[in-house]
Amino acid sequence: MFSGKMKAVTFSYDDGVTQDIRLAELFHKYGLKATFNINSELLGRQDFLDAGGGKRVTHYKVKAQDVKSIYEGHEIAVHTLTHPNLTQLDEPEVIRQVEQDRQNLSALCGYEVVGMAYPCGGINNDDRTATIIKNNTGVRYARALESSGNFEPQENLYRFKSTVYHMDFEKMMGLAEEFISMAPASPKIFYVWGHSYEFDVDDTWDRFEDFLKLISGRGDIFYGTNREVLL
What we know:
This protein is α/β, with parallel strands linked by helices. Helix content is 33%, strand content 20%.
């Protein structure tokens, strides 16, 4: 299934922030690939996020002219134009937010964008929204917010669940050990998601790099973008 292998690892990162530059370099260092989900109408904006405990982190969006070079070797995917909760929008606006973002990003990166991650926390996707996207846009898969905690492939690619959220470090490392030791007879996917700015909150970049060292370089694992793994 995955170039003749039964196991695949992929990553998904949201918002298109400048911390992605450092993260993309780490992925390149370890021969890993990721999908980066971007809001095209927010590119270039500069903001800060309150991370709690008096901590603030930069939430600067990358510039439109830098998108192609920053994410070279990875996949660019839809995160909607302006990051609304799609479940709260009417059908025409859902289509506009998704399809226009897809077209904008396709123009920026030079290939047809077909992936997506739903924006916002909480209940950010439902069957209605997924059906609208499937029937009215060029999106072929869309990642939901929920994590499954397992490696099983899923039939509904328009509400696809990750394996684990990257800030659940202990769980993620435990799953990595399990995944590495597996010799499955059927395809398995280890899918990690998050936001790169979250590594700045408590400076957990080194901790995440330890995970990358562990999971990378395995001859029986295929390392690909979401598109390469899911489609």
